[in-house]
Write a structure and sequence with these properties.
The chain contains six helices and three strands. The protein is mainly alpha-helical and about 160 residues long.
């Protein structure tokens, strides 16, 4: 077995900074969304993806891909959202063996009411912290990383 390619000090500092963002950002987004809409970031993300999908509907397996979730985790979350009348499940008309998640009118209203403050939080935490060139660099960097961790692009929504 060959010797591992240990991180240099600069690489280690960059990696650990990235890890801090990966662990702190979700907590900040969860706190804002819980306060303003009674949602977790994952719940909001699922609802917002449904709000942008054609007919506000996606096959559960596709929604799991887009939200980078397991089907069982998504199913549990959708069950909670169903109990709040934010999402409904129905058989997929193209394949009756599959199930679709459909955003209800109440779910759309909640996403629309939560979106302005959520966008302000995203802007405050990320977008406004970077200059235009840095934002473009961040986008280029995450696209290169995604090409390695999601080479088939399964997490990219079809409408983007």
């Amino acid at each position: 077995m060959s010797e591992p390619r240990w991180l240099t000090l600069d690489e280690k500092v960059a990696w650990l900074g990235f890890v801090r963002v990966l662990t702190r950002l979700p907590a900040a987004l969860d706190a804002q969304l819980d306060h303003d809409a009674g949602l977790t970031f994952f719940e909001y993300h699922a609802l917002s993806m449904l709000s942008e999908a054609p007919q506000r509907s996606l096959r559960m397996s596709r929604l799991a891909q887009i939200t980078s979730s397991s089907l069982s985790r998504l199913s549990n979350v959708v069950k909670r959202l169903e109990a709040r009348d934010l999402v409904a499940r129905e058989p997929d008309p193209d394949d009756r063996r599959a199930t679709r998640a459909v955003l209800t009118d109440a779910g759309l209203a909640l996403v629309e009411s939560a979106a302005p403050q959520h966008v302000e939080t995203v802007r405050a935490l990320i977008v406004d912290a970077l200059g235009k060139g840095e934002l473009a660099q961040l986008h280029a960097a995450h696209e290169r990383i995604l090409a390695r961790v999601d080479p088939d692009g399964v997490t990219r929504p079809d409408w983007l």
